[in-house]
Amino acid sequence: MARVADIVRNAFDAGLTVPAFNVPYLPMVEPVVRAVVDSDAFALVATARLSWFKFASKGPEAVAEEFARHSDPNYVRLHLDHLPVIDEDGVEVDFMPVIQAVIELGYESVMLDGSRLDIEGNIAATRQAADAAHVSGLPCEAELGAVMGHEEGPMPPYEELFASGMGFTDPEEAARFVRESGCDWLSVAIGNVHGAVSKATRDQKKVQARLNIEHLRRLKDAAGVPLVLHGGSGVRREDLLSAVKAGIAKVNVGTEIRQAYETALRETDSEDEARQATYERTKWIICDYFEQQGTRSQLTGRP
Known about the structure:
This protein is an alpha/beta fold. The protein has 13 helices and 8 strands.
């Protein structure tokens, strides 16, 4: 069975991408897995620390238990997303016990987000997480730059952010960061934004983000590792497809499927309808938006 590190590297080399679907509610796991299987694609089912506290996924153990009930490793694997060193509320997180716990729970890749630290602090924290992951043969993702959206309060106007390159990942820093931190994948900022998670804004439609593809190409050349796009929901489709060809080997999706689930549950008061809405939106993202239907065998090397 192919390792997740090899699958993402295959995507990077082939100009394809691996979607990572964040599941802030446990009933979303089954329809996400079913949509991936029915699309003959490969994806990661992901859970982030903020989902354990701001939504209802309960924690990494609960997600792992739910995932085990529906998993098919030929199509899906479990990923720890966005474990911050300093969280969106400015709270310092004791991250290493969480890294060790999810490795023991069977997660097959991990992501440490030290992007709120200076580069030296980010490198040092990521090195700790990467070393622990590598002992167990797992890849470690990190983030460099400022992918905005998770913080409380309003973001700067999007066009101002994009035009100025505010928070964009610096190519020279990316080269140093990968070399010194030991990360396997790098989440970059190139105009993408996270979906809002505060109660006041989480139901709002995301801004249609654009991506600076030339900047991305410079990052690919500098970093030399698979690159990751966080905030994949709402990105202009032509930009996203161009980004995949230019080095984005993994794309995180949360808002699109979360809002589909929440809207259906609110309007119908039916868990079955909410799961079906999640399934349909996930399959649409894979097949129509990302154009990754039928790519599983190419990524995993298995028929």
